[in-house]
Amino acid sequence: KRLRDGGGNVLPPPKEESIFHVFIRQFHFKFWLLLTGAAFLSIAAYFVHYAHGTNEPLNLYCAFILLLVVLVMGLLSLWQEQKARKVIKNFKKLLPSRAIVIRDCEEKEVDIEDIVVGDLVIISSGSRIPADIRILQTNCLTIEVSEVTGQTSPVECTAEAAAPHVSVFDSRNVAFKGSYCTEGDGLGIVIRTGKFTVGHF
């Protein structure tokens, strides 16, 4: 019932950009815009000289070289971005797709997509946090949260309640979906899943 009411523990897929839009986006960098502007100024200078009866092909050569540099660098940036996206997709396939939970007083291994609010999740060293979890028990539990909060150093978790003025990102009794356990083990209860998790926002 919880799975039906709250939906699966999956994030909505990001909107796919077309190759054309990704390519155009490469030229939003100020340096590329500067080179493009310089190329058009060279073209304008050529026509100004041409209107006054002088032929200055050097301006056209400069414009051609500048535009060629911008085009080549744009294609290289596009290739690198597409390659990085492919690596990320392949990496996601390697992530564990199952987690160990306690339901009806029994340990069960379930698909991460089937985890619901209220599940008790067993966290062990090397495991990825499958949902936003309120920590209930810890044994030297340390969580790497850089992918979610940007914090570079791992967080040593605690089961103690956080002070009222402490934000959810600074709280040490919550583990976020997408982070992973680097050391120790613990037990937590799922408080948010899927599109409602902190990492999604």
UniProtKB/TrEMBL annotation:
One of its GO terms (biological process) is potassium ion import across plasma membrane. Residues 1-42 form the Cation-transporting P-type ATPase N-terminal domain. GO terms for cellular component: plasma membrane. GO terms for molecular function: P-type sodium:potassium-exchanging transporter activity. Keywords: Cell membrane, Membrane, Transmembrane, Transmembrane helix. It is a multi-pass membrane protein. The chain crosses the membrane at residues 31-52, 58-79. It is found in: Cell membrane. Its main location: membrane. Residues 94-196 form the P-type ATPase A domain. The keyword Transmembrane applies. PANTHER family: CATION TRANSPORTING ATPASE, SODIUM/POTASSIUM-TRANSPORTING ATPASE SUBUNIT ALPHA. This is E1-E2 ATPase.
